[in-house]
Amino acid sequence: MAKTTYLFVTGRLAEVSLREILATVSAKADFEWEITVPGIQVAALMHTSLLRRRLVVPEHVDAVIVPGWCQGDLADLEMHFGKPFRRGPRDLNDLSEYFGVGKRRTVDLSRYAIEIIAEINHATRLPLEEVLIQARALQRAGADLIDVGGVPGESSPRIGEIVSALRNEGLRVSIDSFDEQEVVQAVEAGAELILSCNHSNVDWVSSLGVEVVAIPDSPQDLSSLDRLVERLDRDGCRFRLDPILEPIGVGFTASLERYMEVRRRYPECSMMMGVGNVTELTEVDSAGVNMVLAAVCEDLGIQSILTTQVINWCRTSVAEFDAARRLVHYAVGAKTIPKHVNSALVMLRDSRLRSLSDAALRTLAESLRDPNYRIYAERGELHLMNGEGYWHGDNPFGLFEAALQRAKERRPASEITAEHAFYLGYELARAEVALLAGKQYVQDEPMNFGLLGAVQASSSLHPNVE
What we know:
The chain has 16 helices and 15 strands. The protein is α/β, with parallel strands linked by helices.
């Protein structure tokens, strides 16, 4: 029985990579293949109307596979050429899965066990509309409760107004204050949780009829937490326990040990962890920190966390913890490691890099005949090439200068336009950033920044420099 022959349609920039991938995939999936490039640089800009004008389909081809980015109705092409047309994956490296000879693991990350309480710091000093804007953004990012943060030492008459406005938005609200007037206002306006309660305020807090966060009188004094639990039980006050997570440098590891001890003492009690004490006070990208703390909470059955996202390095902490709580819940439940499951939290670097070999780069450079530049970030270097030369190194300014000098030698009368210079500078800068950060760079395509979201490339932002 004859093998199926597929014609793969792609852009010039992807042709070399596609050949390397198909050599492996076709052997496993047992098909023949050919590649055609219908006079276009970037596969993402392909449209069926262009293919109808430029594409040539040999008679012996059984089916045509166009890039997943291709726009337009494939039925028009099938009618015109008399062959089946299919959209392939958007990513060439997904061709193995597309042909059923490889598999990308898909899991259900809709479930989680940890509630996110997101604090609006110093909410009483903010205009009401600003509080609402922040609250809506926090909810969209994954927050389950909005915590209204008071200012220590101040007693604001605005708490009731703020809580009422948040409740009118359909948001669940907690109050973070030790001031009796503020807390009473908040509870009367609909706050469902009080942060926090110890022996300094238990006499009046326990009588308000809402749940409280019970904390020790000082972080190291777990006996005070034991006495507080007895008192709250006696008063019939609902509570969750928070032994207090301390920042790195002032007792972080010891505080983790206290969480474990409290869980041993109170295996059935609800618990909370204030993860912002670490993310806000540690000068490091917060995603990995949130992931580790989410894992601790999942393992210990800590059902809620309090976080903030004030300082710039943890400005997306709520969204990060939302992704983390889902990932750790899956990993712990499935008894598997959280690897190659979901890449939402890989933002600075990419989960995997796909690189061209030195031979592929040289072959591509030798095959070019036109003056249009191709840019790659590969093997620790930037690569700039066109039909006039191939330059590579770690200095984009040097590469650009060398390429410009060659252009002047070959085409003395030509001038590089402002638009072309801007485009090359922009793409070389992106390539350098990708190289330094360990991200995948593909000319004219957006980089992947995980849950931060890649800004989708638009042809209107990339002028035609051919």
